[in-house]
Amino acid sequence: MENEFSGYFSNVSIGVALIDNSCKILSINSSFCSLLQKQQEQLIHKNMQLYIPQISIFTFAEDHEFQIITQDTGQTFAIDVVRLKKGKSVEYLILCQDQTSYQLLLEQIDQLNQKTILSEQLFNVLYDGFFITDEQGITLYVNDAYLNLSGLQREDLIGKSVYQQMDEGLLPNSCTALVLKTKKPASTINNYYLGRNCLVTGTPVFLDDELKRVICIVRDMTELQAMEERLAKATSLSASLKQHLREIEVKTKSPFVLETRSKTMKAIYDKAALVAPLDTPVFILGETGVGKDFIVNFIHNLPEKNKDSVLMKINCGAIPENLLESELFGYEAGAFTGASRQGKTGLFELANKGTLYLDEIGDMPLSLQVKFLDVLQGKTFYRLGGTKPIALGARIIAATNVDIEKAIAAGKFRRDLYYRLNVISITVPPLRQRVDDIIPLTMIFLERFNKKYGRKRYFAPRTIELLLNYDWPGNVRELENILERLVIISTADCIEPKLFLEQVTTAEEQLKVCIPGRGATAQQAADIKQSLKEALASYEESYIAESLKQHGTLREAANVLGIDLSTLVRKKQKYKLS
């Protein structure tokens, strides 16, 4: 048998061996020896299990058994064991093939399959859609997110080209088709017929300079738009809260705003705070000295400013017409006789990104009003002698103590300019119409001037009565000037009524201060002694009587006085006013 074995299997490429019932090697060919990396004489009559420990011939239930055995060396053998009966004894034919490379290939295929499965799982948990085609535009892969976004089924897509999908009405347009055409990355908006509005971004994949794949990422624009709306709302709310905090900060820092007791002035400050962040023109009306400049500064300073934001003021009534025009618009070099060689920048340019405050605009010459109207309408202007338009980047605030309606009727102010300026108007009432503010303003100015001059002046009660009774024709400016003068000239800390009366120039005014609305001589007025309560009641009576005389209805008078209609009726009955 051994000689026959040697003759049959000596040149066979697979390993062949013959073993007996105890696993002793009876014969073995050279191929098997090569697999075991041994010489033939090293193996003959040796136990096969010494070299292939896993081989077993005692558990066979059949005459033929197949085994895959992996050695400790990493080699993998495919072994067929065939039982051969020889009389009463049994021998086994062992056929062995090296399966190491094949097994490695199987393992690699298995790993690749696992990676593919893992990749598909990863793609399927993505929120964005994932869409892959080949160089023909034929769909190779789509993830679950794409199906949810497009409203399509996988069987509608896989194996079909994007061109066919558009022909069948599955796609409104194709980003893949655009990438295939241009061979460059591209983006489109797809409003899927059965799905959502999406942003599709396609990217070409090249191999050896040939386009092989197109990968598209599909993102739900509906959610992005909702996020943008939420962000816009949050940004708006943040800006609103920031502006509100800024208003509180500015108001609390200004004693004039914080201490005011006049409902009218509180409403004015609220209105000014409302328009302060806007770029709209503001027209401020009021008598001389009521505090128009303060309102302008309040509006300018309320929003947070950058370093380039300035407040430029010019008094339109204090500068000659020819100079006023060059001050506002500026001029080019040599624009007129006496012009600077370098030219000049006008206030419109200097106030860029800031505020241009035109005080006493009611006194602006008519010829200049026309030019100013053109600037407001066109938002551009030219320097004198210039040809290059300059954008108006300044916020315009105008103010006047002139009765504009009368000025328009008299032909001194253009009605169209008035309408252009009068987008937002603020009328500051005279001090005599907001008596509630006299005491707070007095205390603010008194504290300021005491600190400035190192004094400790205060007012006698009777002096306070006189302050309340006085009409203050010069308004807040007059109050400020008189109080400063009193602090300076008073030789005692207590400011007495006589010293105040000396600052009121005429006997007629002194009379009004002492007994408002009643006849008396200056000497009689100086001799009268009243309590504060009596003085206030007397003033209230005369003030209400004057309001009733000036206004046609009780409701109108109540609105001007800042009290309820029922309160006005009750006080009218109290003082027996007609």
The main sheet orders its strands as: 2-1-5-4-3
What sort of overall outline do the alpha carbons produce when their principal axes are compared?
Answer: elongated
* CATH homology superfamily of the largest domain: P-loop containing nucleotide triphosphate hydrolases
Counting DSSP E segments of at least 2 residues, the number of strands comes to 21
Q: Rg, please?
A: 51 Å
Number of helices: 25
CATH architecture of the largest domain: 3-Layer(aba) Sandwich
Strand content: 15-25%
Portion in helices: 40-55%
In the CATH scheme, the class of the largest domain would be: Alpha Beta
**Poorly predicted runs:** 515-531
Q: In total, how many domains does the architecture comprise?
A: 5
Report the sheet with the most strands, covering strand number, pairing sense and barrel closure. Answer: 5 strands, antiparallel
What is the terminal-to-terminal distance?
Answer: 151 Å
> What structural category characterises the helix and strand content?
alpha/beta
* CATH topology-level fold name of the largest domain: Rossmann fold
Can you put this structure into words, describing what you see?
The protein is α/β, with parallel strands linked by helices and 578 residues long. It folds into 5 domains: 100 residues, PAS domain (Beta-Lactamase, 2-Layer Sandwich); 98 residues, PAS domain (Beta-Lactamase, 2-Layer Sandwich); 176 residues, P-loop containing nucleotide triphosphate hydrolases (Rossmann fold, 3-Layer(aba) Sandwich), CATH 3.40.50; 99 residues, Helicase, Ruva Protein, domain 3 (Orthogonal Bundle), CATH 1.10.8.60; 41 residues. The chain has 25 helices and 21 strands. Helix 18 runs parallel beside helix 20, helix 18 packs parallel to helix 23 and helix 24 crosses helix 25. The protein is elongated, with a radius of gyration of 51 Å. 23% of the residues are buried.
